[in-house]
Design a protein that fits this description.
Layout: E1 3-9, E2 18-23, E3 27-28, E4 32-38, E5 51-54, E6 59-60, E7 65-69, E8 76-79, E9 85-90, E10 103-109
Parallel strand pairs: 7-9
Antiparallel strand pairs: 1-2, 2-7, 3-6, 4-5, 4-10, 8-9
């Protein structure tokens, strides 16, 4: 994948909770969705997605980091000590997401998509 999950930090603490993503090759972050789910009783990833965050359209470079914060905030980018860029995105939820030992973070790379109004 062009982006992968490095870690989930601040489990259950709304003000400190975030997911760190590594950028493995130049790409558009907006071609990715982060979601939370759980594991089934047999240890597999559940297909029941609870919260979904579609990353904003943003060109990112190999070596960059993306922090996805659960709370509300203003998306920012800054040069970091590693000489790459750190991008901070905010999900805008009202409560913590990663608050159970059985929670699972899933990152989905989107090849294509379509939409249609229901009316």
């Amino acid at each position: 994948m062009k982006i992968d999950i490095k870690s989930v930090s601040g489990h259950g603490d709304y003000d400190k909770e975030f997911v760190t993503l590594n950028v493995n090759e130049d790409c558009d972050a907006g071609k990715h969705m982060l979601t939370d789910t759980t594991y089934t009783s047999d240890g597999k990833v559940s297909a029941l997605l609870r919260h979904v965050f579609w990353l904003p359209d943003k060109q990112v470079k190999k070596g960059d980091f993306i922090f996805v914060y659960t709370k509300a905030g203003t998306n920012t980018s800054f040069a970091n000590k590693a000489g790459t860029t750190t991008h901070s995105f905010y999900w805008g939820l009202k409560t913590a997401v990663w608050n159970d030992a059985k929670d699972c973070a899933v990152l989905i790379e989107i090849a294509s998509w379509q939409h249609k109004a229901t009316k």
